[in-house]
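Hi everyone, sorry if this is the wrong subforum. Our group has a chain we'd like a structural model of before ordering constructs, and none of us has done structure prediction before. Sequence below.
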Amino acid sequence: MKYLIAGLGSIGRRHLENLRILDPEGEITIWHTHSPKRAGLAGGVREVFSFEDAIRQKPDIAILATPASTHIPLAQKLAGAGIDIFIEKPVSSTHEGLAELRQIQDANGILIMVGYNLRFHPPLGVLKQCLNEGKIGRLLSIRVEVGQYLPEWRPGTDYRTSVSAKTELGGGAILELSHEIDYARWLAGDVTTVMSMAERVSDLEIDGEDLAEIILRFSSGALGSIHLDMVQRSPSRSCKMVGTLGTAIWDGMSDSVQVFTTETRQWTEVNPAGKQDRNQMYLDELDHFLTCCRTRKDPTISLTDGARALEIALAVLESSRTKRSVSL
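Answer:
Right subforum, don't worry. Here is the predicted structure as tokens:
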């Protein structure tokens, strides 16, 4: 197989290394979209600096690891060339061009997957299984949280120059941390209404929100809340689901999953705490997409899923701006 990776930041490099593991014989081309700056790559990886040169390599699969604001224009070009595409989250920073991308996708019969890798994280899979098997009954509420101090996200990198700090590129807490929006929808079902407050509350030198408090209503009737922040000095990640027959909690720092049921009247650890190989979910996600490309089966996280997560995120921003609830 021939692969094209557009962009070589931290996530682009991760996908590069994982491709080398999953397909050691694959031909990999890196497309630098801004300037011909050598990345010092080894292992026979080809580098190009224009779309024309990238297409000349005749890739079968492209991975978009560029800023979110560039995803749709690049994806339209690649889809028009008949290339299957893996798009890093979020799928974009605006709605613009998404409908056209869907049309190009349908016309060319290509596959598109969006990189919400937490769906491939085993402890979250255990949480979803608890819900699907009825262990906690009908879902009534879900509470999701993630937070970490932005300057500590990528050691050795000036956070002020990162995509995360620039809303024009798809930064800010809501789009950067939209994993939580996607997996809340994955667990609880589709979202019908959102209300939010989102602001820059810290002294971080960014131009967007660094904290967001979100309230959601789901089509099932369940209510939910999502807390997103870039300010916590001690990282935090968790999910709590309350049902008619019990409660399930994922501690994202220890990766334990505990369940309390009315039947047992006690907490049971269904996924013991323990250090997870953080890269494994990225490997599993990419392996899933490569398998879909070979078998021509639709990927788990489609362009439609990515577009819906974006729609919810943009509704959150609108709600904060207008100080009103937004229906979806």
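For your construct planning: The chain has a mean pLDDT of 94. The CA atoms of residues 4 and 62 lie 5 Å apart.
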